[in-house]
Design a protein that fits this description.
Number of helices: 6
Helix content: 40-55%
Distance between the termini: 61 Å
CATH topology: Endonuclease I-creI
Shape: globular
Strand content: 15-25%
Oligomer: single chain
CATH superfamily: Homing endonucleases
């Protein structure tokens, strides 16, 4: 019976974390410029949780439960817990997805993208795989709130070498 109650507690913790992500978190799949790479860019998948720095204890708890991430206090009075890495994002989203309500579309797209990105090097991506990654970026972008201008589809197509 002890193991069943531990599983129940884990599910409850994951449900809480998913709810926190739905309300005060973001899911991102970005293409970042990178000078030390042959292509000059790389993909970055990220889960980020935000909280007013006066009340940031839940972020430490989330970090402890998930066993990953780094906390940083921003100059605007906010603290964020940021988790990066294809495999890590994939594994976390697989656990949280059953509980995610409002960011399900983004979570499903980021889960698929992270699974693909964790499998092989960017050099080995086919045209079809690059097109899928572009579509997942656009799905995540179109469902996320952003205060800044997003990278356009045309720019992403050029970066991913998808232009005719």
């Amino acid at each position: 019976m002890g193991s069943r109650s531990k599983t129940k507690k884990n599910k409850l913790n994951y449900a809480y974390i998913a709810g926190f992500l739905d309300g005060d978190g973001s899911l991102m799949l970005q293409i970042k410029k990178r000078s030390d790479s042959k292509k000059g860019w790389r993909f970055m998948s990220t889960i980020c949780f935000y909280q007013d720095s006066r009340h940031d204890k839940p972020l430490s708890w989330i970090k402890k439960i998930l066993g990953i991430g780094y906390l940083s206090k921003r100059n605007d009075g906010m603290t964020e817990l940021r988790i990066n890495g294809y495999r890590q994002i994939h594994d976390i989203l697989k656990i949280l997805l059953p509980f995610i309500q409002f960011k399900r579309v983004q979570a499903e797209a980021l889960l698929k993208a992270s699974a693909l990105l964790a499998k092989k090097s960017l050099v080995g991506f086919s045209l079809e795989e690059r097109q899928k990654l572009l579509n997942w970026i656009l799905i995540i972008q179109s469902n996320n709130y952003a205060s800044r201008t997003k990278t356009t589809k045309e720019i992403l197509e050029k970066v991913l070498d998808l232009t005719p």
